[in-house]
Specification:
The chain is mainly beta. Helix content is about 5%, strand content about 25%. The protein has 5 helices and 33 strands. The strands form 5 sheets. A 15-stranded parallel β-sheet has the order 1-3-5-7-9-10-12-14-16-18-20-24-26-28-30, with no helix packed on it. Helix 1 links the parallel strand 9 and strand 10. It is elongated and about 85 Å long.
């Protein structure tokens, strides 16, 4: 491992083709003499503490340089305009620095990786973006970009597979979406100020695997015309103004590969959409299907009680979130067929009836939130015996009654899980049940052996896995590994 500054002696290696000093804690400037290494076709200086400007002498490598990774440093100044003249440059990553000015590039640029731009960067989106006819990966997320979306978004590159413009300040409507023959797999506009209808042109994005339009101001009815998408793994429409009743679909097996279905915080009415809930094939059979054949590192957020969980891997994560709408009626017993669900949130609706005992079949369930409804009756005893992975339970503010089941995970839940149910009794509540042996506190030693109690903000590990994306260097491979039950926890506002 190198330390200190980049040694100038590297510039004597005139036949050097690949230079990778990633994550060495290097300081100081990028040597200007790198521009004299005429065979250099790969430079990776990421995750160091380099400062100063990007040397314009790198533009001398116009006949060799293909990959330039400079992210996660302290580089400043402007990006050299002449980088756009590098004939073979396919990958440019200058994210997480202190750069300013404009970005000049070339139509041969194939991969623009994770272009994180701070608020001081002057960014002329329309000027350069529409000319990138070979662009495959576009990520400008987590910046302060504003104004309307580029008008050329739908057709400036038929090679494009990833569009990530999430968590910016874009305004206006989503003008167009996809032309026929597109290859778009990942489309994320989450966390902007977009409004209006969903563009019906999205129906041409039939290869989509991730569609995340959450946290905007969109107003439309439910897009049932998307339920024929056979590869869609993630559909997030939460925190918009979608409205109306979600009617039965004419599609026999709607959304057959869907793993995450989040339509929370909208204005939907009527009964729960049983036709969809009863036919989510991947949630019932755990079918992972074919997913992205490249490696694009990104996450998707799931929000539970004002806590935003950034799920890193989600091809085998299954989440169903219909909370904070105006759904009414009973929870269908058929919900128990979706046995691979890990997150289930039906809270803050107007649901009535009993908690169906068929939920005992959801043996992979880790989060169950049925709070703030009008549910009645007892908590099914079967749930305490079968939901052995359950880490978060919220049944508060209903009209539940009778003893609280105990044993296994149910012995870890605090009073907060049951608030507002005046007729419940037994541990952990102070109100004890009259019938002997029902709802009593567990043996003290058993409680100690089981471990510490969970609450909403202590659930940091143990969640969804899979569906990781990222860009590999030189060649692009998607590869599965064993599930890594890991999330990043971000406390919401």
């Amino acid at each position: 491992m190198l330390h200190g500054v980049i040694p100038q002696t590297l510039c004597k290696l005139h036949s050097l083709v690949k230079l990778n000093v990633h994550g060495n804690g290097l300081r100081g400037l990028i040597p200007h003499c790198f521009g004299n290494l005429s065979s250099l076709s790969y430079v990776a200086l990421t995750n160091n503490m380099l400062e100063g400007n990007i040397p314009e002498t790198l533009c001398n490598l116009k006949n060799s340089l293909e990959v330039l990774f400079l992210s996660n440093n302290n580089l400043g100044g402007v990006i050299p305009q002449c980088l756009g003249k590098l004939k073979f440059l396919e990958t440019l990553d200058v994210s997480k620095n202190h750069l300013k000015g404009t970005i000049a590039t070339t139509p041969t640029l194939g991969y623009l990786i994770n272009q994180k731009i701070n608020s001081s960067l002057i960014y002329e989106t329309e000027t350069w973006l529409c000319s990138l006819s070979y662009l495959q990966f576009l990520d400008l997320s987590d910046n302060n970009l504003h104004g309307p979306l580029p008008v050329c978004l739908e057709n400036f590159s038929k090679e494009l597979t990833v569009i990530n413009l999430s968590r910016n300040q874009f305004q206006g409507t989503i003008s167009g979406a996809c032309t026929n023959g597109n290859n778009l797999l990942y489309f994320n506009l989450n966390g902007n100020h977009l409004e209006g209808l969903l563009p019906r042109g999205l129906v041409n994005c039939s290869s989509l695997e991730v569609l995340d339009l959450g946290n905007n101001n969109l107003r439309d009815s439910f897009p049932h015309w998307l339920d024929t998408f056979t590869n869609l793994h993630v559909l997030v429409l939460r925190s918009n103004h979608f409205y109306g009743e979600i009617l039965s679909s004419n599609t026999a097996l709607p959304f057959p590969e869907l793993h995450i279905f989040d339509i929370s915080h909208n204005e939907f009415i009527g009964p729960l959409p049983r036709h969809y809930m009863e036919n989510f094939d991947a949630m019932e059979h755990g079918n992972d299907g074919e997913i992205l054949d490249y490696f694009y590192d990104d996450s998707i957020s799931l929000v539970w009680k004002r806590v935003e969980l950034q799920v890193l891997h989600y091809n085998i994560c299954t989440a169903l979130d219909l909370s904070n709408n105006y759904f009414h009626g009973e929870i269908p017993k058929s919900l128990g067929r979706l046995r691979f669900i890990q997150f289930l949130n039906l809270s803050h609706n107007q649901l009535i009836g009993h908690i169906p005992s068929s939920l005992e079949n959801l043996t992979f369930l880790e989060v169950l939130d049925l709070s703030s409804n009008q549910l009645v009756g007892g908590i099914p005893e079967q749930l305490s015996r079968s939901l052995t992975f359950l880490a978060v339970l919220n049944l508060s503010y209903n009209h539940l009654s009778g003893p609280i089941p105990h044993g296994f995970q149910f012995d870890t839940f605090s009073n907060d899980s049951y608030l507002g149910n005046m007729s419940l009794c037994g541990f952990p509540l102070t109100l004890q049940c009259e019938s002997k042996g029902e709802g009593q506190a567990p043996d003290e030693k058993d409680s100690e052996d089981f471990g510490m109690k969970f609450d909403w903000q202590s659930v940091v590990v143990g969640y969804c896995c899979g569906f990781t994306f990222g860009i590999a260097i030189g060649y692009f491979i998607f590869k599965y590994g064993k599930p890594r039950w890991l999330i990043r926890l971000v406390v919401g506002n």
